[in-house]
Amino acid sequence: MSSEASRLNVMAAKNIVIQVTTSAAMSKAGNQLNLAAIGSIADQVSMLAGKGHNIQLVASGTSTSGAKVSGAFNALLSLKEPEGSGLIHVSTHPDESSLASSTIQSTGSTLLIYLSHAQGIVDSKGKVVSTYDPSTALLSPSADTSNPMSLSSSSFVSSAWELASGHGCVVVMASTSETDVLSRIMAGHQIGTVFDPAALTTAAGSAVGSSSSRDMAVRARAASRALQALPTEERVAILNRVAAALIQHQEEILTENAKDVQEAEGKVADSLLQRLVLKPSKISLLAEGIRAIALQEEPIGKLLTKTEVAEGLILDKVTAPIGVLLIIFEARPDALPQIASLAIRSGNGLLLKGGKEAARSNAVLHRVITQAVGPVGPDLISLVQTREEISDLLGLDDVIDLVIPRGSNALVTHIQRNTKIPVLGHADGVCHLYIDEAADLSMALKVMVDSKVDYPAACNAVEKVLLHASWLNKGGFDSVCSALRDAGVLIHAEGEAVTRLLSDAPPAPSGRHEYSALACTLRVVGSMQEAIDHIHAYGSSHTDAIITEDFSQAESFLKAVDSACVFHNASTRFADGFRFGLGAEVGISTSRIHARGPVGVEGLLTSKWIMRGSGQIVAKDNGVSYTHKRMS
Amino acid sequence: MSSEASRLNVMAAKNIVIQVTTSAAMSKAGNQLNLAAIGSIADQVSMLAGKGHNIQLVASGTSTSGAKVSGAFNALLSLKEPEGSGLIHVSTHPDESSLASSTIQSTGSTLLIYLSHAQGIVDSKGKVVSTYDPSTALLSPSADTSNPMSLSSSSFVSSAWELASGHGCVVVMASTSETDVLSRIMAGHQIGTVFDPAALTTAAGSAVGSSSSRDMAVRARAASRALQALPTEERVAILNRVAAALIQHQEEILTENAKDVQEAEGKVADSLLQRLVLKPSKISLLAEGIRAIALQEEPIGKLLTKTEVAEGLILDKVTAPIGVLLIIFEARPDALPQIASLAIRSGNGLLLKGGKEAARSNAVLHRVITQAVGPVGPDLISLVQTREEISDLLGLDDVIDLVIPRGSNALVTHIQRNTKIPVLGHADGVCHLYIDEAADLSMALKVMVDSKVDYPAACNAVEKVLLHASWLNKGGFDSVCSALRDAGVLIHAEGEAVTRLLSDAPPAPSGRHEYSALACTLRVVGSMQEAIDHIHAYGSSHTDAIITEDFSQAESFLKAVDSACVFHNASTRFADGFRFGLGAEVGISTSRIHARGPVGVEGLLTSKWIMRGSGQIVAKDNGVSYTHKRMS
């Protein structure tokens, strides 16, 4: 498989021909202009001219349709305010399926963007290839099935390649239906198919350009299969080599990290800067953690169930690696070796996208780790460092199996909203503590303060205390307020009772608010059922707790509250992979699919069914006599 | 919670005012026209006029921006070919945040569509409400954060409600960024927020209009929690009542089904018609199946692990219902009671969307089942029968946890490509059988024929036979061909060897082809590794098998092949929930997340962590001394 260079020649072009097929600029019936498409192209062309590009906009189709579309382009462009220095010229070309080569030559353009219904050139599996490679067979343009292209694939492809290789004009083929297609192509995004000999690196691992993230994911899967095929000892040996390499290359790592820190100083918040800094002690701890992961039980191929389906026909369900993971993390460079080690232990391939503040640290850590991986090859773990944005990575749902965001709520929410890849994580942690009528008050106060104060910004910190109304008459209300205030917690009032009693307390900003600070909401509820309903209406299904000495009430609460973690008489802060005894923590998930709550290595595993027989057949279910005996 | 009627008044409007805020029609900086947005609106307005609607298009903003935007609308509309009888008139309105009431009155319009950056009115959780209800508090317009609306929410909302309730002009508020926003609003889709007193049904369960699917999902979750709170005996009793009700209402069910069948006759394929028909025997079998589900072990709250975290602090991981499932199924009405019963057994709420061929059958089955549900209420299982399309349902990723498609490959592929809700299913089953050098040939022939012929259209049927090259010299090749041909299987040739040897065989249509018929591809491979690589390159990771007497080779194959099911010396047709002994089958998943391969009731379950303590706190991890003893 050829790796793909970044699209430097595309981004460098000053004079550009943009050829739009009239079938992509007209309605499906063909009689009406598609003004949404034409308007969007006009917006983008105008913006590119504003940035200094000279643009030849060519409507290609029959003379009637070409005249109609080019007329519309002129009319629309005349509505734009002129900006910048680039020129725009609109013309026509008589044939949809041939390239506007004469316009290219007469204008000295070095880039032709061909926009039609086709998303690009597809491979034998129907996937659009980002870079056309003449050595690969069986390529044909993909077409919108509702409006198939008339162009003959072979003649189009050969003239595009001829233009690119013979005349130095790079060709990009993409669909008008892509959002902001021109702007994104010019920003170097891997949209559509590029025809550019320079974009094909001939030697594998060539330093020129970086691979596309899709290609990285495909190669990570192949490498992960090689990793899975290794015996346990060898996977363990890789981890020990990684640990040793971190110690051995400590100086180099610290030097690169210092450059990141220096650049970030004064530009980012102090807390962010603290997370960015690596120290010898942190690196030793990292190495130690990786050796601990190496010592853990083999996670792959663990027997989950064994069933005798019929005599001599045995069915095992065993654990298996998920495949290819995408980890998106913010400033913390120490997340990289931790996550890479978990991926290696569990036989997964990995794409890593780190925050730009830690770019140098991530690069050196990635290099040190992949060098230690050995025979499996560096493709197992790729660091996405190109200008490709997170949005491009999130579109790779056909080659990436799971995305794990490690960072702010905003990052996680953004990712959850913008990808079809399953996301393991949680956007917010709005945890509740309900103090029941039958609570031991001193226990309640102790647990409440710990749940908030131990680490107020953590996702498992309490954000709302629900106090049973009976405490209003028993002095409990005042004790709760004093305990919180003595611990430095600012109380926000919610509901009539608390608002009346604490007239100086600020109101809660909303019914569902994550303070992530020494602050919480206090509300009085009339019953446990009201507390449960409130948690369901306003919680984030992360962790919720009850304090009570009434064990039957407690059991009802534990059963009814529909959250990832539900606790009785314990601090919400225990909701954590390490405290749960899961070893390394992959994250905490509030999704209800795949893994829920604190997730250890098992979150990086799926299962696989293995059946061993001696020639059994189904034969309309008369082939065997089913026993379905559970053996383990 | 109020249920929502369909938007009949919206769809019925002939004279329409479409008010577009200039901030939504200009670039973010505000100096350039957003021609993509304006062009799209012009396309849609022109189309609506073509259908006979009279349209007042109002650009609302300052006099400068209003003139600019209305000028652009006029320019763009003049590019459209006139069609149909509707009139289009473009004007301006001086204030973005107030409604163009005078235009409404002067034109006798009964619908105002207000297009801005805001997606609609949001509730306290930030979700857009489909129907504005003045009895609900705390509503405010959602705004694109990058371009917040200037309108004062309360005055806008009250004048919209005043127009709708006092002047009989329905108001719909939606965002220009929605694809085909106008066309979809006029088709009755639940986009944005509608202000319409008639859309609020005052009596719950009123026959006027049906609930929105979002509302159904929200109520299904509440009902599922009530179901989960019931003791096991009561959930079992519900299932037995459902089984009895099916028998009791058999006549009614058969009558409605007969109407469906009559209407479908001659219009659909015979095989589809067969699946549509219900018979007394089928209903008895259904009832029996439901009683069997009732007898199964309680799936909810099953202990998965038990850990002593610290002295007196015990952590259980138990099974829990997923929440709300969406099942989309095609012609088979018997799928409805089966799936509903699995959902009841596992404590989940359900939205069902059936094929239109079975509409009457589904309606009567749904009514009979929900009547039998009893105190939990009919909201537990909703049948989506409105004009809402599958695409609308697939957008409900915030209120639906899992979608299970039961139907054709095309249906499953469409769903997988168009939703962020996790999908349990498989689009295709391209299963391989590899006949190794060391195979017992007669076993290989027997298993090969069964794997294809037992049910050629099944997803677990073999589509490609990979034959080790050594058989070319041992007579095995001819035996394989004869066995397939004798069983009526058409061989398609792939690769040089087979193409040469079987000159009369048609070529395989592609490297990855699911025949779903008495046909398969035959290819010769040089080694087991080549077979594995081929399966990884062209398979669908469903089920792949090896036939060999070399058990060490077999183990390597079972380990290396990265598919949901991998078999040694057994027919691929065993890949099935019933044959695996899982009891009821939910589906077969080729996803690597949540559940993989044949999935039983466990596919409808997630897990939940329950911790029981006696006041333990974390206190910077000095609060307890961790033991992490695995107890079970």
From TrEMBL, chains A, B:
What range(s) does the Aldehyde dehydrogenase domain occupy? Answer: 194-471
Q: EC number(s)?
A: 1.2.1.41
Q: What reactions does this protein catalyze?
A: L-glutamate 5-semialdehyde + phosphate + NADP(+) = L-glutamyl 5-phosphate + NADPH + H(+)
Q: Which Pfam families match?
A: Aldedh (PF00171)
Q: Fetch the SUPFAM superfamilies from UniProt.
A: ALDH-like (SSF53720), Carbamate kinase-like (SSF53633)
Which spans are transmembrane here?
Answer: none
* GO terms assigned for molecular function: glutamate-5-semialdehyde dehydrogenase activity
Q: Which UniProt keywords apply?
A: Amino-acid biosynthesis, NADP, Oxidoreductase, Proline biosynthesis
Q: Which PROSITE patterns match?
A: PROA (PS01223)
CDD domains from the xrefs?
A: ALDH_F18-19_ProA-GPR
Annotated GO biological processes are: L-proline biosynthetic process
* Annotated InterPro entries: AceGlu_kinase-like_sf, Ald_DH/histidinol_DH, Ald_DH_C, Ald_DH_N, Aldehyde_DH_dom, G-glutamylP_reductase_CS, GPR_dom
Quote the pathway field: Amino-acid biosynthesis; L-proline biosynthesis; L-glutamate 5-semialdehyde from L-glutamate: step 2/2
NCBIfam families according to UniProt:
PRK00197.1, proA
This chain belongs to which protein, by name? glutamate-5-semialdehyde dehydrogenase
